Amino acid sequence: MIHLTERLAETVADSSAPVDAADRADLGELLPLVQYEADQQGLALDDERLLAVAVHCLAFARRVRGGEYLDPLGDELYTEVPADRLAAARHLIDTYCGPRGYTAPDSEVLLLALHFEVARRSGDTCENPT
Amino acid sequence: MRRGTRPDRRPDIGPDIRAEAAADATADAMDETRDDKGNGTMTVKIVIGHRLGKGQAVADGIRAAGGEPVLIPGPGADMKVGDVMAAEEAALGISFCGSGGAGAVTAKAKYGHEIEFGMRSAQAGVTAVEQGRTVLGFGFLDSEELGYAVTEALLKKLGETA
Predict the structure, then answer these.
(1) What is B45-161's CATH number?
(2) Measured between beta carbons, which residues in chain B are less than 8 angstroms from residue A16?
(3) Where are chain B's structural domains?
(4) What InterPro entries does the annotation carry (chain A) (predicted)?
């Protein structure tokens, strides 16, 4: 996970908001939760997918830290993800957000869950999920 | 190649060469066409990839400003922005998701594009174009205003460098 954070930091170094110490600390907690959930779902995220999830986590962690909330998304979009996997994403997000006093909106849950669904549909699955 | 399909991955030629190639591709991405009176007009292709399969309003704004939008269909389209930009020889890509970052960093990692992400306003997109970014990542901001403003800024920048 440290390697992934540093790869992300290198990738966005030239942007207007490069990874800083607070980001590194937050990603150090959030990315292992994401990896654990991917393992639970039998998803083997390739390098490309890992980087995409990592930058999503970076933006999410910044929203949590800044007390920002995404707008609601259309109800029809939630049908893209099975209920049990939405529940798993909610659990992951609440595990991260609880100690921070932040209640994430359902839109955050859906966006994270969609990252896992994209990985699943593109075939990033383990033969023997752990 | 059909729009929205995924081309073969390019060989790993190193970040500096990829960045240079991306810059060259952007410079070449403005086509000059001439009408029957010989008047030249500049057109640019701008690829749109939206996590939820939207982006039509941005496409309308791009078209209104004189650009040619390439709207990638279907959910997860943001992740294909770099691939479709390469296939279409587009000057700019716009990625939409929670922050637009996933599509942008993927385009950078694979093709060396200069990126900006986490943007939430048309003005932020204009500034990014003026700074030479070639893939822009936004939150969900499917508006004509965004497409128009970014296209206008891109045409101005490419006109200055042509």
Answers:
(1) 3.40.1400.10
(2) 116
(3) 45-161
(4) PRD_sf (IPR036634)
Q: Which two tokens stand for residue B106?
A: 């993927």
CA-to-CA distance for B52 and A85, rounded, in angstroms?
18
A80 contacts B134 by C-beta, under 8 angstroms:
no
Residue with tokens 């066409």: B33
- Tokens standing for residue B38: 């010989």
> pLDDT tens digits, residue range A29-73?
999 999 999 999 999 999 999 999 999 999 999 999 999 999 898
Nearest to B115, CA basis, from B100, B130, B104: B104
3-class DSSP state for residue B71? strand
**Correct CATH for A2-121 of 3.40.718.10, 1.10.1790.10, 1.10.10.10, 3.60.15.10:** 1.10.1790.10
Report, as ranges of residue numbers, the positions in chain B whose pLDDT lies below 50: 1-13
> How large is the ipTM?
0.83
Beta bridge partners, B41, equal B33
Interface of A with B in 34-93 (CB under 8 A): 47-48, 51-56, 58-60, 62-63, 70-71, 73, 77, 80
- Chosen from B99, B108, B115, B127 to mutate, greatest number of chain A CBs within 10 A: B99
pLDDT at B22: 55
Residue at token pair 């599509």: B103
Is A56 close to B101, i.e. CB distance below 8 A?
A: yes
pLDDT at A12 over 90: yes
